[in-house]
Design a protein that fits this description.
By secondary structure, this protein is α/β, with parallel strands linked by helices. Helices cover 36% and strands 16% of the residues. Helix 3 runs antiparallel to helix 13. The protein binds pyridoxal-5'-phosphate (PLP).
C-alpha cells in the first residue's frame, strides 16, 4: 500500500460556521477544530500534517484500511463508466454482482440483498419488511417491534423507536407505537473484566417470554438486537444468549433481526457475527464495512422464506413499496464489490480472528490503571470502561480521547467507555502503540 507520509499537508482551514455537524459539540469543535485531511492504510493526517493511528477504522467502517488502492481504483473506474442509473424499474450490472457476492458470504438460507445508503436506512427497511411479511401471510395483527435497552439502531424514527439510548429518543416525541424493549445485557457485578463473551446472563433472553406474555405473540412482528452492541459502549452478548433469543422467536413465530452494521465484515473475526455465533436470524442489517466506509451504502439481507412471500401477485406489479433514489448506487456497488474482493484476497477476516487474543491481552493489561472499572473484548472489538467523574458523565472518557488524539492515536468514546475497532489490517505493534497511548493518557 502506498505510504505517503513524506508528503506534507498545508490545508487551509475553511470557514467552519455553516456546517451543522452531526453528534458533535458544534461550538467546542469550531473553536478547537480537528480536521482529517488525508488517510492511507492505518493512518490519517490532520490538516496540520500530524499523523494519527486510526484505532477505530473511521467509525467502525474502514475495515480494509483507508484508501485501499483496489477500492479506490474500482470507484474511479465506475465513475468514468456509469455515474447513475435509475434505481426503480432499471438496474445496472454492478449491483447484481454485489448482491451475488454478498449473499454468497452470508449464512446459509440468507439469499437476498436489498440495498440502501446507511445503517439507519437498513434498520428502517428491515422493520418494514418484517411488518409487511406478516401482513402478506395474513398475520397483520403482528405490528409490535421489540428492541433492547442500550441498543443503537441509527437515527431514523424506526431505529430510535426500537433503540434504547435515551438522549437519542427523548427530544423526538412518541415515535413508533407498540414498541417494547428487552433489558440490556451489560452487568459489571457479574461480568467485569470478561475475556470474550461473558459467562453470566443467558437467562436475560428469557425476558422476551415475559414481554410475549404481556402483549401476546400474535401482536409481535419482530425482535431486533445488535449481536454486539457498539454505540452504547461495546456490550457483549452473554454465552448462549443469542441462541436463546432465536429459540424463543421460533417458538412464537416472531422474526429475529440482527443489526450487524458494526459487527459485519470481519469485525468479530468472521464474515458476520451470525456466522461466528452460529445463530441465523431472518434479516440482517449491514452498512459501514460493506464498502469499507468509502461510499455510503447499507443493505438488508433476507432469508429466501421472506423474499418468496413477497413474490406473489401479478408478475409486473411492485412487490415491496420501498426503496431509495440511491439504492444500489453504481459507485457504492463498485466500492462494495472491490471491498469484498479485498477482504477475501487478503484474508482479512481470518487476520482479525488471529489478532483477537493479541488485542485482548493488550487491552486487559490496562487493568489497574487509574479509573478503569472494566475491560471487555471480542474479535477486533474492545472497550475500556472508566469511572465517571462526579456530576460530569462522559467527561473523563472525552479527556482521554483528546489526549490520545494529541498523542497521535484516534480512539472513540461512548459515555465513559473507550471503544476500539481498528481496521482489520492492524498489526501487533500498532495494537501495542494504541494501548500504550491510552495507558499514558489514563496516567496523565
Ligand atoms: C448497530 C448500528 N445500527 C445502525 C447504525 C446506523 O448507521 P448509520 O450511521 O450508517 O445510519 C449504527 C451506526 O453506528 C450501528 O452501530
Amino acid at each position: 500500500m502506498a505510504d505517503n507520509t513524506a508528503r506534507q499537508l498545508a490545508t487551509d482551514v475553511p470557514d467552519l460556521e455553516a456546517y451543522w455537524m452531526p453528534f458533535t459539540g458544534n461550538r467546542y469543535f469550531k473553536k478547537n477544530p480537528r480536521l482529517i485531511a488525508r488517510a492511507s492504510g492505518m493512518h490519517c493526517w490532520t490538516h496540520e500534517g500530524a499523523r494519527l493511528l486510526d484505532a477505530v477504522a473511521g467509525l467502525w467502517c474502514c475495515n480494509a484500511g483507508h484508501c485501499h488502492p483496489k477500492i479506490v481504483e474500482a470507484i474511479q473506474r465506475q465513475a468514468e463508466t456509469l455515474d447513475y442509473a435509475m434505481a426503480f424499474q432499471l438496474g445496472h450490472p454492478t449491483v447484481f454482482e454485489l448482491a451475488n457476492k454478498l449473499t454468497a458470504m452470508a449464512p446459509r438460507g440468507i439469499d437476498y440483498a436489498f440495498f440502501v445508503n446507511s445503517g439507519s436506512e437498513a434498520v428502517d427497511t428491515a422493520l418494514k419488511i418484517a411488518l409487511a411479511w406478516h401482513r402478506l401471510r395474513g398475520d397483520g395483527a403482528r405490528t409490535r417491534l421489540i428492541g433492547r435497552a442500550r441498543g443503537y439502531h441509527g437515527v431514523g424514527f424506526g431505529g430510535i423507536s426500537v433503540g434504547g439510548m435515551s438522549p437519542n429518543r427523548k427530544m423526538f416525541a412518541a415515535m413508533l407505537p407498540g414498541v417494547d424493549h428487552l433489558p440490556a445485557t451489560h452487568n459489571l457485578e457479574h461480568n467485569a473484566y470478561s475475556r470474550g463473551l461473558p459467562k453470566w446472563g443467558a437467562h436475560l433472553a428469557d425476558e422476551l417470554e415475559n414481554i410475549i406474555a404481556l402483549h401476546d405473540a400474535s401482536t409481535i412482528a419482530a425482535v431486533i438486537v445488535e449481536p454486539i452492541a457498539g454505540s452504547a459502549g461495546v456490550l457483549l452478548p452473554p454465552e448462549g444468549y443469542l441462541k436463546r433469543l432465536r429459540e424463543i422467536c421460533d417458538r412464537h413465530g416472531i422474526l429475529l433481526i440482527f443489526d450487524e452494521v458494526i459487527c459485519g465484515f470481519g469485525r468479530t473475526g468472521a464474515a458476520f457475527a451470525s456466522t461466528r455465533f452460529d445463530v441465523t436470524p431472518d434479516l440482517i442489517t449491514l452498512a459501514k464495512g460493506l464498502t469499507s466506509g468509502t461510499v455510503p451504502m447499507g443493505a438488508v439481507l433476507a432469508s429466501a422464506q421472506i423474499y418468496d412471500t413477497f413474490m406473489t401477485g401479478p408478475e409486473g406489479a411492485i412487490e415491496f413499496f420501498h426503496g431509495y433514489t440511491y439504492s444500489g448506487h453504481p459507485l457504492a456497488a463498485a466500492a462494495g464489490c472491490a471491498t469484498l474482493d479485498v477482504y477475501e484476497d487478503e484474508g482479512l477476516f481470518e487476520r482479525a480472528r488471529s489478532l483477537e487474543t493479541t488485542l485482548e491481552d493488550a487491552l486487559h493489561s490496562l487493568k489497574g490503571e487509574p479509573n478503569v472499572i472494566d475491560i471487555r473484548n471480542f474479535g477486533l472489538i474492545g472497550a475500556v470502561e472508566l469511572e465517571s467523574m462526579d456530576g460530569q458523565p462522559t467527561a473523563r472518557a472525552m479527556n482521554i480521547f483528546r489526549r490520545c488524539f494529541d498523542d497521535g492515536v484516534i480512539i472513540r468514546t461512548t459515555g465513559d467507555t473507550l471503544a476500539f475497532s481498528p481496521p482489520l489490517i492492524i498489526d501487533e505493534a500498532q495494537i501495542a502503540e494504541t494501548v500504550e497511548c491510552v495507558r499514558n493518557a489514563l496516567r496523565a
